[in-house]
Design brief:
The chain is an all-beta fold. The chain has strands at 2-12, 16-19, 22-35, 38-49, 64-78, 81-95, 100-101. The chain is built from no helices and seven strands.
């Protein structure tokens, strides 16, 4: 399932080469919402992977961005203790001025999202 979120670019990090075959780039969106007259600010760390790492290049701190993403979860077992990691994997970034930054292999003119092979996994959720 795909999700969309709009917020202000708070920080972006350099691309990290995690393994010989995997790289990622993280950035943080500042999201503010009003609830019962009070403003609450949250910070969402998002990630770009593989050929999508460059999508954030043209964005500057303070830009308002709309990001499309999938939620990915991984279970691991370390020293007999079960743990979980949740990532917000971004596949499209649109700046407030309407410029879209998408990888060449993701169609931008279709209504339904057609996932690329990197966004498909075999997790049961």
């Amino acid at each position: 399932m795909a999700y969309e979120l709009t917020g202000k670019l708070y920080k972006k990090y350099s691309t990290q080469q995690v393994t010989n075959t995997f790289k990622k780039r993280e950035f943080v969106l500042e999201i503010s919402e009003e609830i019962n007259g009070n403003i609450y600010t949250n910070y969402a760390k998002m990630q770009l992977v593989q050929n999508k790492c460059g999508l954030i290049d043209s964005a500057e701190t303070g830009n308002i961005l709309t990001v499309s993403f999938n939620i990915k979860g991984t279970k691991y077992d370390r020293d007999g203790k079960e743990g979980f990691i949740t990532n917000l994997d971004v596949w499209k970034i649109e700046q407030a001025n309407g410029n879209q930054n998408t990888p060449a292999n993701v169609p931008t003119n279709t209504t339904p999202f057609t996932p690329s092979p990197e966004t498909i996994d075999d997790l049961p959720f």
